[in-house]
Amino acid sequence: MCRYSVYTLVLLLFLLGFISKHHSKSTNPSKLLDLSAQSFRQILQSSRTCFVYFGKHVNPGIEAFLEQLEMSAHALEDYGIMVGKVRNHIIFNKYSSTLIALDQGAEVLRSFDVDTVFDVNAIVSHVLFSVLFNEVRYVHTPAELLAVERAARGTRDVVMGHIQVLGLPEHRALMEAAFVYGTKYQFVQTTGAPLLKHMGVADPASVPARLWFLHCSGVTHRSEPCPHTLMRKPLTTINIHTFLQLMEAPLLVEASVDPEEVNVVFSHLNVPVLFLFTQSETMQLDRDTAQSVARRLRGEVGVVLIHRDNLGVKTALKYNAVYQLPQEEVRYLSLKNTDEVVNLFREQLEEEEEADEDEGDEDQWSSLDVLDDEVAESVYRDRGLTLDTDSLSELTDQTFSTAVTQSRLMVVLFYLKWDAVSMAFLQSYLEVAEALEGVGGVELGSVDCGEWTVICRDQNITSFPSVLLYHSTHPPQRYRGMLGTTSLHRFLLSQVPSPVFLSSSAEVLSFLEGDLYNTHSTLTPIRVLGLYLPTDTDVLVFEEAAQSLRGEIILGLFVHEEAQRWADEHSVMLPALLVSRGSGIQPEAHSLSSSSSSTSSTSSTSQDLLSQIQRFTLDPFPELGVENLPGYVEVGKPLLVLFVGGEESVEVLQSLEEMRKAQSTGHLHSSLPCWIHLGRTPAGRSVLESYLGFVPPLPALVLSQLNTGGEVFHFPPERPLLAAEIIQWLQRVQNGQEPPAGMISDEAWGPPVPFYNFLSVMDEEAPGYAAQRSHKTKPGAKRGSERGAEHNSPQTSPQTSPQPPPHTEL
């Protein structure tokens, strides 16, 4: 619209009162109020909101604007806002002399030029934004958004809209939603590209208006980010309303009838509905899977879990998924995994949104956003996340020495900003720091080894991330546990003196029963007692090993003549270890005499003793999980794994008891009996499927011989899972009378796309340089002997490279 130089056009937004009855009975059918001097003075004293146009002249351009203004009067009436125009010369001269932003009463909230409010969408959006100025936060940077999230955590959810230009239809739709839902959600508006990058948008310039729902009401930790859901449909009033209704709807709905008879909120919202199925044997696992799918499709598709066990469900067993598009019939499918379920809907959405894009280019470059390391990919996805490090001391070369010497316990994380595992663990480390705020004597700090290289060199940091504990009275201790919040938090809370020096048999009994340091029993229930005579020379070795295990196991030391009586009661020779697994349980006794006499070096003996203690404290029939799996795999025995379902049924308890009976006979010594609860460890389902190629009925017993060729044996499901049957089956396996049910192939971990085949690139530059592609080096093989054999016999296999250094665990 052209600018008007002959006269001044000013639009003012007022807080006005209720219009008098005389005015409301005007014969003018239009919603646009034509205000006289008297009626204008009346509304100045009222409390209703009114949008007023001041103008003296009318030309074709103004006539077009007045048409838009009249249309906005009808729209704003729904929000209790009146629209009027004033042509009085005295009033016009008073309010058009300057542009003023005043307060409530008879004062101006905001003034606009005609070019700003050029049509009905611009008028409605700007008016509502001005009225909601104190309720809708306008943010520019990720830091400002994080401040909004921090204030909303645990109380309310956040709706953030990105608008390219104010005054467009998308802006109006966002403001109309804020007017309706503003008391329930915290609305945020932005027009800046930095926030798009913060939300994971790679190319902000090509992104249309977007809306995110930030689930902050369920977040309690200050350092935890608010999960967010993107609305993938265009920003219209009806789409936003539907999206917010989906956010309020249950994540997963369960039903006991056929899909055609299900009546849920998703059907009324005109969105696709996905039906998945479950049975009583796998109900918890299926529910977890359905919830996972529902989270991935949240805001786009409603997910319903159908219970097959109900007589009202007639759907054939060959179908495991049903979906229904709005206003269409249901469709039955047989899908292999959850990715197929998600792709079923995502492909349809992508066809609608990207119909005009070149499919060839998309196929070539879309996979570049997928890294060949899951940890690196997760960090890449969260690369725009700004971490709240207020609870952490960032140490430098000026503050490091003071911090570690003046604190009773200083915990320091050494990390690199460009290392994916470091950045992933940093989030867990911050959660631990927040959880330990207020715990006396414990401080947490960090050192960026990319910036403070001298500190990391002096502390002998060679792998990242590394956590060291600096005690005021002991040498630094390295944390060797899992790189996760729970493990590190438990480790730090378990910091008691190690070893605990005991001086009498009464103290020994109290230690083994868990009365000493009873507050730590829930953190580390296992206790290890070293029994030594005063004449034993290996006491210092035990003390050194105990210091290395501080925080992992509670260790006691009894150096006394009465140690012989304790050894005699448990039929072992001194020095010895007693392992207590809880009050009322007979301690296990292990003699150390053979191992201590076989090693001459104190340092190597200390390491051997540490390994012995770790081996003795392993659970004889453990429940495997993500955290303890590496320790049991290192034992080197075939894994005899019992997979049980998600619910603690009578069948599950009986099968576990039969496994314990079989173990007590001593016939399972050649394998490591263990079990996996698929409800607590959902990854176990993938493990079982990779073993057998399918998921059998549970409970299922599997023998996995990873160290002898990768053969997998499956206990026949038609046979009763009894102790005698298990022992007989294992004997048949050892005699070669049972065929393997599967084989774990030693597949190469290749790059996901050719672009990431760095070894091939190196070979092109220097043939043979990327030697890792050849056969793996056998454990224990020496490089020198390999090279010698290759030199003496040209017929041998190509040269193998040494094993790469082990990657830190997460």
Automatic annotation (TrEMBL):
Residue ranges occupied by any Thioredoxin domain in the UniProt entry = 393-492
Q: Which residues form the signal peptide?
A: 1-24
Q: Where is the TXNDC16 N-terminal domain?
A: 31-128
Q: Which keywords does the record carry?
A: Signal
Which stretches does UniProt call biased (Pro residues)?
A: 801-810
Quote the PANTHER family the UniProt record gives.
THIOREDOXIN DOMAIN-CONTAINING PROTEIN 16
What is the name of this protein? Thioredoxin domain containing 16
